[in-house]
Amino acid sequence: MGKNIKRIGVLTSGGDAPGMNAALRAVVRACKYYQIESIGIRQGYEGLINNDMIELGPRSVKNIINQGGTILKTARSTEFRTPEGRKKAYEHLQKNNLDALVVIGGDGSFTGANIFHKEYNVPFIGIPGTIDNDIFGTDFTIGYDTALNTVVEAVDKLRDTATSHDRVFFVEVMGRDAGFIALNSGIASGAQDILIPEQRDSVEDLCDSLERSEESGKKSSIVIIAEGEQLGGVYEIAKQVKARHQEYDIRVTVLGHIQRGGSPTCHDRVLASRLGIAAVEGLLEGKTNLMAGIRSNKIVFTPIDEAIIKHNEIDTELIKVANILAI
Ligand SMILES: Nc1ncnc2c1ncn2[C@@H]1O[C@H](COP(=O)(O)OP(=O)(O)O)[C@@H](O)[C@H]1O
Ligand SMILES: O=P(O)(O)OC[C@H]1O[C@](O)(COP(=O)(O)O)[C@@H](O)[C@@H]1O
Ligand SMILES: [Mg+2]
């Protein structure tokens, strides 16, 4: 076993994501399997700063594989962004004899862990947990598949009412700076147009698309807009379309945090289970400053700097698919 790791601290940080519990369960059970101890840190980095931790064993994580959210709770900790906050965190880490950390979170959480490592040399491995799927080094982040399915289910319902009233629906989905949720849910829910931050869009193009839809005989349309869209917010975009087409009966729906909850899909549970075990095994092999991810269905470790700085490109084939099917 590498680096004398006997006690691992595990935390969930940043925005919660369905499947974080499944990842926690896998970390705790892998620790037991490899005969080391696992300690749960509550509320992300806040728990390190406030010494809020709990010993975990295989039975402490029973009945959570199917639960959304995170039983450890999560936080966006402003104090951890300060050297003083991280000093307190390190003191409590030492007090609890933690030899390494598993950080389940997004790019922000990894940035924090990286800075902490540079200052105090604490080994850590990150597990990508965010619905946004915006992390380089993995084909999928934990929670993304569940969020996609939630969006598709919701848009299917909107389609029923859109069709009944011959309306145009503008639906805003999450994705702070990324269009993965929008693009994939848009294809799966049969959207007429999909607006994502990675692409240059214009209200003119959007109107063209809606006009084409009318000309081809469609009586109602759904437009999916990522919250990070550069053109502006969904209400503003809807207003601009209405100004050009007063005859359109437009409605706006912001799906919001409903996308962050719910029981994780099979895909997210399996992904989380694999990554949780990989993170523990990585630490025991002496690995650090890496993110465990999955690419082409194989576990891969990516340097954390790369995971933070690089970005997954939007697949242009998917954009083509969306365009062809909107005919
Ligand atoms: N530059 C930073 N320095 C120290 N800690 C950071 C930094 N960026 C993020 N963090 C920590 O990670 C937490 C989670 O980051 P956030 O961006 O909110 O979510 P996510 O990890 O989901 O991207 C922050 O609340 C903060 O405690
Ligand atoms: O939960 P909050 O603080 O309202 O933040 C909302 C943001 O969190 C997300 O749901 C997930 O982002 P992170 O996983 O990076 O935290 C984004 O899609 C959204 O922009
Ligand atoms: Mg983030």
UniProtKB/TrEMBL annotation:
Tell me, what controls this protein's activity? Allosterically activated by ADP and other diphosphonucleosides, and allosterically inhibited by phosphoenolpyruvate.
Q: Where in the cell is it found?
A: Cytoplasm
Q: Which Enzyme Commission numbers does its entry carry?
A: 2.7.1.11
Xref: Pfam families:
PFK
The UniProt annotation places ATP binding at: 15, 76-77, 106-109
Q: Which residues bind Mg(2+)?
A: 107
Enumerate the catalysed reactions.
Answer: beta-D-fructose 6-phosphate + ATP = beta-D-fructose 1,6-bisphosphate + ADP + H(+)
- Do the record's keywords include Acyltransferase? no
Residues forming the catalytic site: 132 (proton acceptor)
Q: Which residues bind substrate?
A: 130-132, 167, 174-176, 227, 251, 257-260
Q: Name one GO cellular component term.
A: 6-phosphofructokinase complex
The portions of this protein that span the membrane are none
Instruction: Quote the InterPro entries the UniProt record gives.
Output: ATP_PFK, ATP_PFK_prok-type, PFKA_ATP_prok, Phosphofructokinase_CS, Phosphofructokinase_dom, PKF_sf
Spell out the PROSITE patterns in the cross-references: PHOSPHOFRUCTOKINASE (PS00433)
What metabolic or biological pathway is this protein involved in?
Carbohydrate degradation; glycolysis; D-glyceraldehyde 3-phosphate and glycerone phosphate from D-glucose: step 3/4
Name what cofactor the protein needs: Mg(2+)
Q: Which GO biological process categories is it annotated with?
A: canonical glycolysis; fructose 1,6-bisphosphate metabolic process; fructose 6-phosphate metabolic process
Top EC group = transferase
Domain annotation Phosphofructokinase: ranges:
7-282
The GO molecular function terms of this record are:
6-phosphofructokinase activity; AMP binding; ATP binding; fructose-6-phosphate binding; identical protein binding; metal ion binding; monosaccharide binding
User: Keyword annotations for this protein?
Assistant: Allosteric enzyme, ATP-binding, Cytoplasm, Glycolysis, Kinase, Magnesium, Metal-binding, Nucleotide-binding, Transferase
* Chain positions recorded as ADP binding sites: 25-29, 159, 218-220
Q: What does this protein do?
A: Catalyzes the phosphorylation of D-fructose 6-phosphate to fructose 1,6-bisphosphate by ATP, the first committing step of glycolysis.
**UniProt protein name:** ATP-dependent 6-phosphofructokinase
Q: Which organism is it from?
A: Chishuiella changwenlii
